[in-house]
Amino acid sequence: MKKFKLTDLLIFIVTAELVGALSALFSGDFSSFYTEIKAPPLLPPSWLFPVVWAILYALMGISAYMIWQTDDSVKCRSTALKLYYVQLAVNFSWSILFFRFRLLGLAAAVAILLLMLVGAMILAFTRIKKLSAWLNIPYFIWLIFASYLAVAVYILN
To answer: Which residue ranges run through the membrane (predicted)?
Structure first.
């Protein structure tokens, strides 16, 4: 196990937060989006999304740091980190597809793909460090809800 370095931890957290911030930036003005569509039941207020995502990105960064910090000889560490970065890239693309390009069907499919990738990532993290996997359970639960919203918006519109 590597020695704890606050700067390394912060790099992981900031990287995850930047992915979210850049995705939001490239998505355009999505504040009016939900007023222009038929909204599904249980749609939360728009102010809640950035709050939830900021927390989830921080947890993602912390959990990835914990995996990265494990001994290099752990076989599945590389696979776990690859899954982390792939899901982060897919996560980045979702808002752009949904809000900027309004590709609702594709965005719904990407949301489900993201849910499966995060499930696989959690399983990979569990094999290395259980706490790092548990830190992603709120993300997984939120993605179940987000997938419902994405599919419902697609169906209703």
So the answer is: 9-27, 47-68, 80-97, 103-125, 137-156
